[in-house]
Amino acid sequence: MATSRESSVPYEIPDDGAAPVRAGIPEHGRVPRYYWLKARLVPLLEGLGEGGALPTERELAERYSVSRETVRQALRELLLEGRLRRSGRGTVVAGPKLEQPLALASYTEGVRRQGRVPGRTLIGLTRHPAPAGLAADLGVAAGEPMWHLERVLFADDERVGLESTYLAVERAPALDREFEPDSSFYAYLRERLGVRFGEATERLETVLATPREALLVGTPPGLPMLLIHRASRDGDGVPLERVRVLYRGDRFSFTVHLDG
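Above: the chain sequence. Below: its structure as C-alpha cells.
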C-alpha cells in the first residue's frame, strides 16, 4: 500500500541495467516516485514486446506498492515518449518511432523505407482564392485560384499525422479529376505532370494540436505534435507548393544529414 512518503525515493539502478541515464538523476539521488516506477516499467515493456497489453493501473499499483495516481503519471510520460499507445480500452507497447528525413521526399517513400505500409485518407480537396501571403509561396497573384488538399496520414493502419498541401490551380488544373487521394502527391507531380523538384525550405516546431486536429489524428488534445512548414520550388526555381504537416510527437522522429 502506498504511504504519504511516496513522493520521492532514493534512486536505485535496477539489476537489469534498464534505468534512465545518470544525467537525469539529481545529485542527491532522490527522484519522484513516478520516475522510479517508470524506470522499472521499461524492462516490463521490453518483455511484453510490440503490441503487448500492459497490466491494469490497479495491478501495477499493487505490484510496485504505489498509488494509482503514481502509475497514471508514469504511464502518461511513457505515452508521450511513444513507448506506449492506447488501443481500445487498454494500453499496449508501441513499436519504434518512425524516422522521417528532413528532405524533399514524399511521406510515402519515407515510410516504405522502414518496412511500414503508408496510407492516406482524404479529408477534403477544395478550391479557394489564394490569400496574399500564401500566393507569394505559390508564385501567383493574390486572389488566383489554388487547391487545398487535406489528408490524414497512416502507417500500418495507425493514424500518425495530418497533411495540408496548397498548390496553384494552374499547376494542376485537373487535380480533382486525375489524382487518387490515397496515393503519393509527389509521384503524381513527377510522373503525371512532369514536375522536377528543386529545393525546399522547411521549418520544424513543437505545437499542441487543436481540438479538430486531435480528433482527425486520433490523439488527446494535450499531446505534443511536431509541425513542419515547407515551401518548395521546382527544378527551374519557380515556387511550387506550400505544405503544412502535423506529426504525432509520440510516433515520429526526424533525421537530417549534415556535411562538414
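Confidence is low (pLDDT under 50) at residues 1-5, 10-23.
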